[in-house]
Amino acid sequence: MGRRYLSLALLTEGASDQWFLVPLIDRQITELALEAPAGFDYSGADVGECFTVAHRDLVVRQVADLLCYYDIVMIHHDHNERSKVDALRDRFPDDAHRIVALVPVRETEAWMLADPAALKEAAPTRDTAWEVSHDVEKAADPKAVLKAALGGRRDAERDFGRLGQTVALDALRKVPAYRAWTAELRRAMERLRFL
């Protein structure tokens, strides 16, 4: 029997979330793959054609399409919109185990603040240590903190993508919402027998 192939689609609230989350998801899957007894192939997360903040009917149609072609459909929302992921699972009860919620507390930018060394690498001329709280989920406005930490630079796509590639997974594991996401992802992969 040949190796299995894991396919994963991602829907996010916006494009800037994708810049950070796609490389981060790929790195996390690669790490989980080390635990797979039989191994599997994975070529990276594909992004869907709409954002999760689109009209509900459009998001439901997109998720229905993605569930036809992908093993896992990952739905990103900020924490105040988490109920929308549960509503999607209610719409697809037979496939609810394949819908994985990716819900940072407050905003995705909070996860970008988790690793001071990665921030320093993204903005080498700035000393960000004093700007970033050790408990990034308690930052009242993670976007503002991140903007200040990066020196207000304008190339968010490059900075967010770089942070997604370099933020330490060990640092992120200290963030409760990140641990919740990886636990849910692990359960989905175990149920689909990738792990």
Question: Whole-number average pLDDT?
Answer: 90
Radius of gyration: 17 Å
Helix content: 40-55%
| Morphology | globular
Termini, distance in Å?
A: 17 Å
Number of strands: 6
User: Strand pairing plus helix content: what structural class?
Assistant: alpha/beta
Taking the sheet with the most strands, its summary is: 4 strands, parallel
Count of discrete alpha- or pi-helical segments spanning 4 or more residues = 9
Order of strands across the widest beta sheet? 4-2-5-6
Question: What does this protein look like?
Answer:
There is one protein chain. With about 200 residues, the protein is of the alpha/beta class. Helices cover about 50% and strands about 10% of the residues. It contains nine helices and six strands; from the N terminus they run E-E-H-E-E-H-E-H-E-H-H-H-H-H-H. It has helices at about 15-35, 55-70, 85-90, 110, 115-120, 140-150, 155-165, 170, 175-190; strands at about 5, 10, 40, 45, 70-75, 100. The strands form two sheets. Strands 4-2-5-6 form a four-stranded parallel β-sheet, with helices on both faces. Helix 1 packs parallel to helix 7. The chain is globular. The chain starts with a strand and ends with a helix. The mean pLDDT is about 90.
Primary descriptors:
single chain, 195 residues, alpha/beta, two-stranded parallel sheet, 9 helices, 6 strands, 48% helix, globular
